[in-house]
Amino acid sequence: MREIVLINITGPDRPGLTAAITGVLAQGGVNILDIGQAVIHDTLSFGILVEIPDTEQGQSVLKDILFKGYELEQQVRFTPVSEEDYQQWVGNQGKKRHIVTLLTRKVTAGQLQAVSAITAKYGLNIDHIDRLSGRMPLDTPADKGKGCIEFSVRGEAADPQALRAEFLSVAQELNVDIAFQEDSLFRRNRRLAVFDMDSTLIEAEVIDELAKAAGVGDQVSAITERAMAGELDFRASFKERLALLKGLDVSVLDSIGASLRLTEGAETLFAELKRLGYKTAILSGGFTYFAKQLQARLGIDYVFANELEVVDGKCTGVAVEPIVDAQRKADLLKELAHKEGLRLEQTIAVGDGANDLPMLAIAGLGVAFRAKPLVKQSAKQAISTLGLDGVLYLLGFRDRDGQL
Fold it and tell me: Mean pLDDT for the chain?
């Protein structure tokens, strides 16, 4: 009678170990039903689920594995599995899978406990846990660290909305980011990424910087803050702010452009997206003059932003249609996806303001980046802890995959 046995092997990792173990199994005519291996700090954890035939060679295979394990300085454990349990395991393979991604400056046991407890509470089982971030020296400054742990979970969440709400609450409490997304075919097959500019790609709202130069900084900043928080209609507030810039000399544009700082991780993100074959775009309620500068610097494929009308070297304060507002951003995302022959599930959208929500909602991966509370709560995913390159982790990208 055939046997089904789970073989667990642990010990110091060394070259040729997998070949040696599977070689013994091959001599016994064993079938492999499942296999998994992980190495943590040069210590191996190797699991093989096998079907052992009722033959003379098969009867001695477990004893031979024990001898080989002893020879290789490995601990070996056997766990019999009934055919009923095996068939139940096979039946579970159709269950939905999701990815839970923990983003933080420094990974702690408390963070992992919180994530794993919530997944268990809502009926999800953790199948795999992987570290996507690179190895960090012990003396890394607190604001320079970068940690990412990915959980592959199986099952149907008892209450998906409550699950997301609890993840968001714990993330705020622990100062981490927790993303929850379906592990679908499209997750690793996205090919278009679009970005807001102000307070997303750059660490400023350009219209506020222009307003400071025009002597109306406080007025414009107050309107901007309320518009990005979703308290004011973007089109109306944009026209109101722009009108306050009437008469501003365009000679200040170059100095403002030179002073703009890229957001942490922007250069890394765009370099990797380009290497991976992505098309990229700026969809901004800001101004084309500055977006074009970023396009040249980061190698961005498309730019859609607002024109700053100038007559006789002075800003007119008049808005030029079409204004890139919330609906325009969503429409542009659809147009670009169609142009590139992509489904919306293959797109990524990143932004921080309320005027970004429509495009974040329709993108395959919508990320609220260092966003206002309303935007963070409404978006599918949010990153506030790490830089823009944290988006790569949500694609399953490992630091060691990079070439920077």
Answer: 93
| Dist. CA 147–CA 170, nearest whole Å | 17
Q: Which long-range contacts (CB under 8 A, 24 or more apart) does 26-32 make?
A: 27/57, 27/61, 27/64, 28/52, 28/53, 28/55, 28/57, 28/58, 28/60, 28/61, 28/64, 29/53, 29/55, 29/57, 29/58, 30/58, 30/61
In whole angstroms, give the CA distance from residue 83 to residue 154: 22
Q: What are phi and psi for residue 207, nearest 5 degrees? A: -65, -30
In Å, how far are 47, 75, 267 from 26, measured between CA atoms? 16, 20, 49
234 neighbors 357 (Cβ within 8 angstroms): no
Q: What is the mean pLDDT of residues 259-265?
A: 95
Both structure tokens of 217: 């900084």
Mark whether 103 and 10 lie in a shared domain.
no
In whole angstroms, how far apart are CA 396 and each of 161, 181, 184, 390?
23, 11, 12, 10
Q: Which residues are catalytic?
A: 196, 198
DSSP states along 68-109: HHHHTT-EEEEEE--HHHHHHHHHGGGS-EEEEEEEESS--H
Q: How is residue 278 annotated by DSSP?
A: -
Can you read off the two tokens belonging to residue 157? 């969440």
pLDDT of residue 57: 80
Of 66, 90, 114, the last residue of a domain is 90
Spatial distance between the Cα atoms of 346 and 194, rounded to a whole number of angstroms: 11
Query: Tokens at residue 306, please?
Result: 């607002």
H or E stretch at 131: strand 125-131
Tokens 């012990």, located at residue: 138
Task: Please check whether residues 335 and 216 belong to one and the same domain.
Answer: yes
* Look-up of token digits 């959208």: 349
Enumerate the β-bridge partners of residue 400: none
Residues 2-20 have a mean pLDDT of: 94
Query: Under a CB-based contact definition with an 8 Å cutoff, are residues 186 and 364 in contact?
Result: yes
Q: How many beta carbons lie within 10 A of that of residue 102, not counting itself?
A: 27
pLDDT digits (tens, 9 = 90+) for 113-165: 999 999 999 999 999 999 999 988 888 898 889 999 999 999 888 899 999 99
Quick one: 15 and 79 in the same domain?
yes
Please report, as a single letter, which amino acid is at residue 98. H
What is the C-alpha separation between 384 and 372, in angstroms, rounded?
A: 10
When divided into structural domains, the chain yields a total of 3
C-alpha–C-alpha distance, residues 241 and 217, integer Å: 10
Choosing from 143, 163, 183, the residue where a domain stops is 183
**Whole-model pTM?**
0.88
Cα of first residue to Cα of last residue in the chain, in angstroms, is: 55
